[in-house]
Specification:
Length: 851
């Protein structure tokens, strides 16, 4: 391994040497260039004065070469005889100098030395790279050219004199013409299970070289720095790295297998209960056993409650009132790291059933709209989503407005424009997007995927758009006057787009053609536009760490799935799947649902797309298809703890109908119950305590089954209402069943009804809430319902709980399910782990905060 050290010495006459005075010397400061560091031989503490303290520090370094020193150049100063290491010989020289036995060191009394070390890529260990010298401008004898695939690496072995922080500068070339091709590599130090993603932006040509720097912590002596290609483009052409000590803090490393999540705040809420106030807050996925929390009321010094990550993150203040102000302080050890996190108030008590408090969010209702045939429509709030649009750690609410004439694809007729608003939870409206006349309204047309795709700590939104869409700042996309509606109200011609919107403003950041386009309408299974405009969406961690947006067109017959990444404010297509491509892909045709989910089906750390009866692998190929056909109900989660990995539950619309439970990785059927006709509803989830798995119900026979298809009870023993949705509402680890605006809990009965407060529900017979998700407070879920035509009611539980766990939103499987809840026929979100009475709270997968 070759590398070089640039050293500059200034000649020193004996007359200017430092005189020994009482065991110390007077320093003489020399002028050094800005790029260099003035280092005195023997000066172990950086004081520019040699004393017996330096001799003591030198002896310590000799005894323990890996010891850390506050002076970052201590390792250089220790090597007095310049033989490459600190030994007893150096200590002898320093002792002789301090006792005036010598008046100079072999290399002078002091030196000016640059501390930059260079290591060439072609002299390092490398894999799936070639030693190349084709493109001019490199500094050494060649450069490492990565293969265009994931996994190639350059692994440098470097040596540093002392433990500390070092600036690592990569010299590279990236001649890609695509500005979104960042040739990202995951940089790993000393083989640890942590890495730092480093992007290498385009340099324009392969003969133009640039630099990117990071800061890492290194140990004294030998270290490895490994840059592994993380994208299918491979890494850049790598010339060398340079190392120099720095006082800067090291960049935050990411644990291998960790997924990017939102950098949420504590989400403190104060919910009015029947007697008192329930205060709750988030435990984050990044908290550890050293994290503690203290609850205060009205600024008083008395601590009402103190807990840690093993205790519930909620506290019922029996004497609290709706006008009291609550705060939470967060400590890491003895240090207060988050001071006075204030509570969002839900001041209204839901008295009908005696559970839940709520607040009202007033909305800006769009004006009625007149159709080309003279009919009119009005608007009500419909499906919702959440995302942190401004990076403050708090969620904002995205609201889709539903016109009263919205249509299922099978029904002809004009529909009003679709609007999407964004609100702060204090009622402030941030923006409105008008999708325009060329996007039809209904459950199957607009899947709006809200997530922080680029990892900057701020959420974006991606959805299908068209000519005449108006973004949140008033800019029209495409042709403002275009009108592609036919006399039946369908839109079967004209441009189709996919747009990335900025979450904070609603501004259109990038618009591309929707992939695939509709092409010939009849190729999708009919001639009038039912099947061609069946859309789905999802958010998936296809690389195992960062989110991608999934857009789906078609599932009754032809099925297509396209994956998009966001880089530098642009949409970048990752891959596209099409059952019409033939080969193994053809088996996916007709095997999709009215919903889809992202989940790690095959246990490889990367998400697959669960389309219903088939699964698309993380690389855009078909993992398998069961051939069970189409269905309306889809639940994906760890539904059977004894079965490794995840399971998939479906209710079937194709013969032999009924319900099925299968292993997510292989498609192996764990049980199936057949029926005489279309089974349109069903539920899978842990509803009954004490069973060995979740419970499984289909509306065809209303029997509650266990994981092997054995009857446990009848659905009527739980509720008389439909098996529609689920919610964590009470203090137990079992979920309540949610239908319309009512929650029933097995063994307890009705535990919530929002009708007395004015809560309604969405989507006709589907009877959905606007959203159910762990938006605030502890791990229990909030429920959002429409109220009249211009309000949303936000409910949170007032049940206490004995269980402590991080916010469900820091489980990536659950979080992506929340993002996709607005897709077509809404389904409840499931976690990647099993929660149930008698089971230990699982150790959560590692995550890291965006931003």
């Amino acid at each position: 391994m070759k590398h070089y050290t640039t050293a500059k010495q200034k000649a020193v006459s004996l007359a200017t040497c430092l005189a020994v005075l009482g065991g110390s010397i007077l320093p003489i400061t020399l002028q050094a260039s800005a790029a260099d560091a003035t280092v005195y031989y023997g000066d172990m503490d950086g004081s520019a004065t040699l004393t017996t303290a330096d001799l003591s520090l030198l002896k310590r370094m000799i005894a323990n070469p890996s010891a850390a020193f506050s002076y970052k150049h201590a390792g250089i100063a220790a090597d007095i005889n310049a033989d490459g290491e600190a030994t007893i010989a150096d200590a002898v020289l320093l002792a002789q100098y301090l006792s005036a036995q010598i008046n100079t060191f072999p290399n002078g009394a002091y030196t000016v030395i640059s501390t930059i070390d260079r290591y060439y890529a072609i002299e390092a260990e490398y894999f799936n790279c070639i030693n190349e010298n084709t493109n001019a401008g490199f500094a050494g004898e060649g450069y490492a050219n990565y293969y265009n695939e994931v996994g190639g690496y350059v692994n440098w072995t470097v040596n540093v004199p002392t433990a500390g922080n070092y600036k690592v500068t990569f010299r590279y070339a990236n001649g890609s013409s695509d500005t979104n091709d960042l040739r990202t590599c995951n940089v790993n130090v000393n083989g640890s299970e942590c890495y730092l993603p480093v992007s290498y932006p385009t340099t324009g040509t392969w003969t133009t070289w640039s630099e990117v720097s990071i800061v890492v912590a290194l140990q004294a002596g030998s270290n490895t720095i490994k840059a592994t290609a993380a994208t299918t483009s491979g890494g850049p052409n790598m010339d060398y790295i340079e190392l120099e000590p720095t006082d800067a803090a090291p960049d935050d490393m990411i644990q291998v297998g960790a997924k990017q999540v939102e950098a949420l705040d504590r989400g403190v809420i104060a919910v009015k209960a029947g007697s008192g106030v329930l205060v709750s807050w988030r435990i984050l996925g990044t908290d550890d056993e050293n994290t503690t929390y203290k609850v205060y009321r009205n600024g008083e010094p008395t601590v009402l409650y103190e807990g840690n990550t093993s205790k519930p993150s909620s506290f019922l203040d029996p004497s609290g009132t709706a006008t009291d102000n609550y705060t939470v302080d967060v400590y890491q050890g003895d240090t207060c790291t988050e001071f006075a996190c204030s509570a969002f108030s839900l001041p209204n008590y839901n008295s009908k059933v005696g559970s839940g408090g709520y607040t009202t969010l007033n909305l800006d209702q769009p004006a009625d709209m007149t159709m080309p045939d003279g009919s009119t429509c009005s608007y009500t709030p419909n499906d919702c989503s959440v995302g942190d649009v401004d990076g403050d750690g708090q969620y904002e609410l995205f609201v889709k407005w539903d016109p009263s004439n919205s249509k299922d694809n099978a029904n002809a007729g004009y529909t009003g424009n679709v609007y999407i608003d964004c609100y702060k939870f204090n009622g402030t409206k941030l923006w409105r997007i008008d999708l325009g006349r060329n996007i039809r309204a209904g459950a199957h047309y607009t899947q709006f995927m809200v997530y922080d795709y680029d990892g900057d700590g701020k959420a974006e939104m991606i959805c299908k758009t068209a000519d005449a869409t108006v973004d949140g700042v008033g800019t029209v996309i495409g042709n403002a006057s275009a009108d592609y509606r036919n006399s039946s109200g369908y839109i079967l011609d004209g441009n189709e787009y996919l747009t990335l919107f900025e979450g904070a403003t609603g501004k259109a950041l990038d618009t591309v053609n929707f992939v695939p386009g509709r092409g010939t309408v009849s190729n999708w299974g009919d001639t009038y536009g039912n099947r061609v405009d069946r859309f789905l969406g999802a958010v998936a961690y296809l690389d195992g760490a960062t989110p991608s947006c999934i857009m789906v067109r078609g599932y009754y017959t032809r099925m297509t799935v396209t994956a998009w990444d966001v880089a530098n404010g642009k949409l970048v297509q990752r891959w596209a799947f099409d059952s019409d491509d033939g080969g193994t892909s053809a088996a996916a045709a007709g095997n999709g649902n009215h919903n889809c989910f992202a989940a790690d089906a095959d246990n490889d750390g990367k998400d697959e797309i669960i389309m219903g009866a088939c699964v698309i692998d993380d690389n855009g190929t078909l993992l398998y298809s069961t051939g069970f056909g189409h269905g309306d109900t889809l639940h994906v989660g760890d539904l059977v703890p004894s079965n490794p990995g995840l399971e998939i539950f479906m209710a079937h619309e194709h013969a032999p109908y009924g319900i099925s439970l299968r292993d997510a990785a292989t498609g192996k059927v764990l049980f199936r119950k057949e029926a005489a006709g279309d089974t349109g509803r069903g539920i899978a989830g842990n509803i009954v305590a004490g069973n060995s798995a979740a419970e499984f119900i289909g509306i065809h026979d209303s029997i509650v089954y266990n994981e092997d298809g054995t009857q446990i009870m009848t659905w009527a023993e739980i509720t008389k209402w439909s098996p529609n949705s689920l919610v964590y509402w009470t203090g137990s680890l079992e979920r309540g069943v949610l239908d319309r605006q009512m929650v029933d809990q097995y063994g307890t009965g009705r535990v919530f009804s929002g009708s007395n407060a004015g809560a309604g529900y969405n989507n006709g017979s589907k009877a959905n809430a606007c959203l159910t998700a762990d938006i605030f407070g502890d791990w229990r879920e909030e429920m959002l319902f429409p109220c009249g035509s211009n309000q949303i009611l936000i409910f949170s539980t007032t049940f206490t709980t004995e269980y402590a766990m991080p916010t469900l939103m820091h489980d990536a499987k659950y979080r992506t399910s929340v993002a996709g809840q607005n897709v077509a026929y809404n389904q409840p979100p499931h976690t990647s782990y099993f929660l149930g009475t008698g089971y230990e709270i699982p150790k959560f997968a590692p995550v890291y905060p965006a931003g």
